[in-house]
Amino acid sequence: MPKLIFRLFLTFIVFVGIFILIQKLLTPESFGEYGHYRANSLDDNKMRTSFYKGDAKCTECHQDVYDLRETDVHSGVRCESCHSPKIDATTDCKVMPPIVKGTNKFCAECHATNPARLKKGVPQLDFKEHYVKQNCIECHNPHAPWELKEK
Amino acid sequence: MGTERKVNNRRKFFQTSAALVGGTLLYALIKPFEALAQPKEEEIKTDQANLALWGMGVDLEKCIGCGKCAEACKIENKVPKEPFYFRTWVEQYTVKNDGTVKIESPNGGIGGLKQSVPDEEIFKSFMVPKLCNHCTKAPCVQACPVGATYISPDGVVLVDETYCIGCSYCIQACPYGARFMNPITKVADKCTFCYHRISEGLQPACVEVCPTDARIFGDLRDKESDLVKFLQVNPTQVLKPHLNTHSRVFYNALSSEVK
């Protein structure tokens, strides 16, 4: 082999070697295990803390409220639909209790009249007509809405 | 002389032909480059048949637009309350009597949607919850230059937050507008079907809180799942089917006005 060709060949090999080395250094760990991405990222996405605990967790303390809710029309609604958590699921919710003020505005989120809500089985009312000066919870028990309270 | 040349030519022709045919046959028999080739799609499918394939059904006949899902999503995934970025949100579509369509979604529907069009002008009105459609052929995944967004083996489009360079190509590529740049982490952010919850066997937060069960979440491969039953019972449709994204969020009772 002529010397020139040999040198050229050697340089080529060295360049390819450097390229492979750089590529190895820059590619993160577990990249390409399942596809063109970091497989460890799946675990990163799994590791996040959740906030919503589910009814099972609530009934550990509030079985009575749960039983009451199951007797009335709000039985399909989960605890956390209204009582949205204020603290992550690993912490005891007594640290920041998810108290809801039963204001008219809060109930109106679901029960205010809207043409798109017609025929969906959710009772709607005009909050400007129905006992304007009172809070909903003064008459209705939010856990059993049709057990009207005596005034 | 002429004869000899002819014979030589003929011999060469037969030799070359034999070598070609033999080589092709040999290649077909031993397949030396098989190991280098990418696995075929069918093989991947059988490999992952034991994994779940997550999808969601949205029943527009049940959605009342209370915005609990959008609120729950923000709490669960620590999405900043303001500016108005959403992983999931609810839109109210109003078709007026003159045929024009008004789409509104103040604060993503959080706090309950209110109709702004007077009753006598309304032809029809309906709610449409939106979220990432978790496409099988996701344009955002194709657009990402570094491989920071990908489809997980169980069919969820996810973002690698430590690897994303924040170029926002994926945000432009998404035909559903389901992605945004998170102002805190400075990387692309989107619905993950609450991947941390579903891998623990829980439901996504939006499904968990929906008071009317308008959202149905489940495994498309499990024939007993609620989602498969929902798809069997209802005639469903995906958003923008003409884009060939093969998304896995299925809408029941979808009107043609929905974009």
Key traits:
heterodimer; A: 151 residues; mainly alpha; 3 domains; two-stranded antiparallel sheet; 2 strands; 42% helix; B: 259 residues; alpha+beta; Alpha-Beta Plaits; three-stranded antiparallel sheet; 8 helices; 11 strands; 28% helix
Please give the radius of gyration of chain A in angstroms: 31 Å
Mean pLDDT of chain A: 89
**Low-confidence parts of chain B lasting 5 or more residues at pLDDT below 50?**
none
Strand content of chain A: under 5%
Q: What's the β-strand tally of chain A? A: 2
Largest interface between protein chains, with number of residues from each side? A-B, 38 and 54 residues
What's the total helix number of chain B? Answer: 8
CATH topology of the domain at 55-137 and 191-252 in chain B: Alpha-Beta Plaits
Q: Report the radius of gyration of chain B as a whole number of Å.
A: 27 Å
Please trace the helix and strand order of chain A, writing H or E for each element: HHHHHHEE
Overall 3D geometry of chain A?
elongated
Helix residue percentage of chain B: 25-40%
Label the CATH architecture of the domain at 55-137 and 191-252 in chain B: 2-Layer Sandwich
* Derived structural class of chain B: alpha+beta
| Major sheet characteristics of chain B | 4 strands, mixed
Protein topology:
The complex is a heterodimer of chains A (151) and B (259).
Chain A: H1 3-26, H2 40-46, H3 55-70, H4 79-82, H5 104-111, H6 136-139, E1 140-141, E2 144-148
Antiparallel strand pairs in A: 1-2
Chain B: H1 2-30, H2 41-47, E1 54-59, H3 68-76, E2 88-96, E3 101-104, E4 122-131, H4 139-143, E5 149-151, E6 157-159, H5 169-173, E7 180-181, E8 188-189, H6 195-198, H7 205-209, E9 215-219, H8 226-233, E10 236-237, E11 249-252
Parallel strand pairs in B: 1-11
Antiparallel strand pairs in B: 1-9, 2-3, 2-4, 5-6, 7-8, 10-11
